[in-house]
């Protein structure tokens, strides 16, 4: 059984999609990051970095319980556990390259673009421009790579496509104010349509919808999500 520590944000969405694709049995454990539950000692014992997603596999290697945190590590772990969605063996270097491109570039710059456009104080135009333009540059790199290709790596659907799906699903927030945020990136839009057409995608979108996550952006939420903006308690 997989215990899946979840909040409805892009990185957990990737893992939800892979779990639904593989059919592995799992239990959703809600972690309300707007309430600061990611900082509780019980969760920090699973992910010392205090972020979702994380999993605990009660049937890990050698039959031992295994914890895995960071969405890319989880994707690789679960794909290797099931032997699925890894592509051909000869595509492994390419798979790792694009997974890390998303993990270290597309995802973080998209997240910062959203933060500075929606959550940061007014008057930070340089930061807004910097992170949005870098996110868009990563969009362009991936869009150009997908020209004439159905999938990011090789000839089949892999965890690289799932990883990109998690963040591209938030394009309307990354490219704030754009009625059709993927219009300049037709290959990205095609990839999203391809993934969304899979039955597992609709099931992944439903994960966690039975839990009432906090939606109010108040002082508690800001302190929970951006603790480094506040001085440590005396």
TrEMBL record:
Keywords: Transferase. SUPFAM superfamilies: GST C-terminal domain-like (SSF47616), Thioredoxin-like (SSF52833). Residues 88-216 form the GST C-terminal domain. Residues 1-86 form the GST N-terminal domain. GO terms for molecular function: transferase activity. Pfam families: GST_C_2 (PF13410), GST_N_2 (PF13409). This is Glutathione S-transferase. It comes from Acidisphaera rubrifaciens HS-AP3. The lineage of its organism: Bacteria, Pseudomonadati, Pseudomonadota, Alphaproteobacteria, Acetobacterales.
């Amino acid at each position: 059984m997989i215990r899946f520590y979840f909040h409805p944000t892009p990185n957990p969405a990737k893992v939800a999609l892979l779990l639904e694709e593989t059919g592995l049995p799992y239990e959703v454990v809600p972690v309300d990051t707007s309430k600061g539950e990611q900082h509780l000692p019980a969760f920090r014992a699973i992910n010392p970095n205090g972020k979702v997603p994380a999993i605990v596999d009660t049937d890990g290697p050698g039959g031992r319980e295994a914890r895995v945190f960071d969405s890319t590590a989880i994707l690789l772990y679960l794909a290797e556990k099931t032997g699925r969605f890894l592509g051909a063996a000869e595509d492994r270097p390419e798979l790792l390259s694009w997974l890390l491109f998303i993990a270290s570039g597309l995802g973080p710059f998209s997240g910062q673009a959203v933060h500075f456009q929606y959550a940061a104080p007014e008057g930070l135009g340089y930061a807004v421009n910097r992170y949005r333009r870098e996110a868009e540059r990563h969009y362009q790199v991936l869009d150009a790579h997908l020209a004439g290709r159905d999938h990011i790596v090789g000839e089949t659907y892999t965890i690289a496509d799932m990883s990109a799906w998690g963040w591209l699903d938030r394009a309307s927030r990354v490219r704030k104010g754009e009625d059709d945020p993927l219009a300049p990136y037709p290959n990205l839009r095609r990839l999203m349509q391809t993934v969304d057409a899979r039955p597992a995608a609709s099931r992944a979108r439903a994960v966690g919808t039975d839990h009432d996550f906090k939606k109010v952006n108040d002082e508690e939420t800001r302190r929970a999500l951006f603790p480094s903006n506040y001085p440590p308690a005396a």
